[in-house]
């Protein structure tokens, strides 16, 4: 007899549904990111912040190990289907953010789901992305005020999208979606 799976089909299907929905959003963010970068580069951090959404919604809803990473990877595959050229970016971002979100949940032994934990991981994600973009986009060419706002929005973007994800996850829990997703 085969050993029981650690993650139920119901949980995987819920992760898949969240991953598809947020993957479409990620693809949309990817589609407009070039225009935002060229036309209003200072707002780029708000657009990139959407990439925290899959894991936040999954963890807020399901409150289980591995759901952030699984959902992020599904979202990355969906976004990659729309923009195959960026598969490396999408999967790399999914692994980075998903692992960070899983790490924050693991610190609480997957028993503590306070909102502040989600926001701490969002700030860390924002800082990591801001540092990498600083060099890639040569942010030092902007005036000092623009550099400060640019970096602040890279931190604020994931925080705002985390708030959206927590609200969506809470609404789905109230609707009873989590009850049908058993481990």
UniProtKB/TrEMBL annotation:
Keywords, alphabetical: Membrane, Transmembrane, Transmembrane helix
TM ranges: 42-62, 69-87, 93-110, 117-136, 148-172
One Pfam family hit: ABC_cobalt
Domain of life (superkingdom): Bacteria
Coiled coil: none
UniProt entry tagged with the keyword Membrane: yes
Keyword Transmembrane in record: yes
Xref: InterPro entries: ABC_thiamin-permease_prd (IPR017195)
Protein name: ECF transporter S component
UniProt source species: Microbacterium terregens
């Amino acid at each position: 007899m085969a050993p029981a799976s650690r993650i139920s089909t119901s949980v995987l299907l819920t992760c898949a549904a969240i991953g598809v929905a947020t993957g479409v959003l990620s693809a949309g963010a990817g589609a407009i990111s070039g225009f935002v970068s060229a036309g209003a580069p200072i707002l780029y951090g708000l657009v990139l912040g959407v990439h925290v959404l899959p894991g936040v919604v999954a963890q807020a809803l399901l409150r289980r190990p591995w759901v952030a990473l699984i959902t992020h990877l599904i979202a990355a595959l969906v976004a990659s289907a729309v923009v195959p050229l960026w598969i490396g970016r999408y999967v790399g971002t999914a692994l980075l953010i998903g692992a960070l979100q899983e790490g924050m949940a693991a610190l609480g032994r997957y028993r503590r789901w306070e909102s502040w934990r989600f926001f701490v991981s969002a700030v860390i994600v924002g800082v990591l992305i801001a540092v990498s973009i600083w060099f890639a986009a040569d942010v030092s060419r902007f005036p000092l005020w623009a550099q400060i706002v640019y970096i602040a929005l890279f931190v604020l973007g994931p925080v705002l999208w985390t708030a959206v994800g927590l609200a969506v996850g809470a609404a789905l829990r109230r609707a009873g979606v989590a009850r049908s997703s058993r481990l």
